[in-house]
Structures are given as C-alpha cells and as structure tokens.
Design brief:
By secondary structure, this protein is an all-alpha fold. It is about 70% helix and about 0% strand. Keywords: Hydrolase, Nuclease, Toxin-antitoxin system.
Length: about 170
C-alpha cells in the first residue's frame, strides 16, 4: 500500500454489501422450510440457487475492486480473488479459504446447474451463509481501518460502517 493514495469506491462496496444482505435475508426465509418440502419445491430450489449466485457475485465484485485498488493484483479466477484478499490481509486467511469454497460453489451453480445436488444447496443455506456475513464484517473492519488512517492524515469523513461519505 505504501504512500500512494488508495481510491476505494465506498459507494460500490456499500451497494454490494446491501445486495449480499438482501440475498441472505431471502435465503434465511427459504431456510425456514423443512428440508423435504424444500427438495420437493422447484421454485424454492431455484430461488435459493439464484440468491446464492447473487450474493457470491456481489462478494466477488467487492473482492475484485479491493484486489485491484488495494492489493494491486488481478485475480486469475473467482477463487483466486479471495486468496489475494487473504494474502493481503484485507480478510483473514481462514475466511479467504471459505470464500474460495463459496466461489467454487457459485461456479458449480452457474456452469453445472442441473448437476447440483439440491440437498447440498439446502445444507449450505442452513449452515454456511455465516461465511458471507463474516465477509461483510471483515470488509467493513478493513474499510474502517483505512478510513481511520485517512482521517488521521486529514483526508475525509467516514460513516460508522467505515465507508467514506461522498464529498461535495
């Protein structure tokens, strides 16, 4: 990161965090359905898969932005982007590995839709959406850290979530 000024698009990150939160809220609602009922309802299955794709792609958009602006690296793949964030200490290594798995799950949903075991979708929906919540938390913590540094340097006003307010 050195002495170069970082331009992080806080508005983009805020928008993508909101996208993740909306998708997770819908997944939480779907997850209230008993497993057998879920597995017999193609509309719920399709909805859950779509919300996973939306939420993971929003996480990916944040990842690509931070990899380019902060780590100054271009990822080779969806999964590689999260490795870069972990390596750059933007998110923890442990979370980076979980997000790599999420990226692979997204690829499976997008590229092999008919081959996805719906009971696995249900299990992930019930047990693993916390990784996306943790991702949001770690991204916000990183942004707060960057904003505090900018504030100390006299370069801007920030909101409570660590995102800098638009100037002007």
């Amino acid at each position: 990161m050195g002495g170069k000024k970082l331009y992080i698009n806080h508005d983009l990150i805020r928008e993508k965090i909101t996208d993740i939160e909306k998708a997770l809220a819908l997944l939480d609602q779907i997850a209230l359905t008993p497993e057998q009922d879920f597995l017999e309802d193609q509309i719920l299955i399709s909805g859950a898969k779509y919300q996973f794709v939306l939420s993971i792609e929003a996480a990916q958009n944040i990842c690509n932005h931070l990899a380019a602006r902060v780590a100054r690296e271009a990822p080779d793949s969806y999964a590689d982007c999260f490795r870069i964030l972990g390596k750059s200490r933007i998110i923890s290594q442990e979370l980076a590995q979980k997000m790599v798995s999420m990226a692979k799950f997204r690829n499976l949903l997008v590229h092999q839709y008919g081959k996805v075991d719906d009971s696995i979708v249900y299990r992930i929906m019930k047990n693993d959406t916390g990784d996306l919540i943790r991702y949001i938390q770690e991204i916000k913590l990183f942004l707060r850290t960057v904003s505090e540094k900018e504030r100390k340097d006299g370069k801007g006003k920030t909101t409570d979530d660590g995102c800098r307010e638009k100037e002007g």
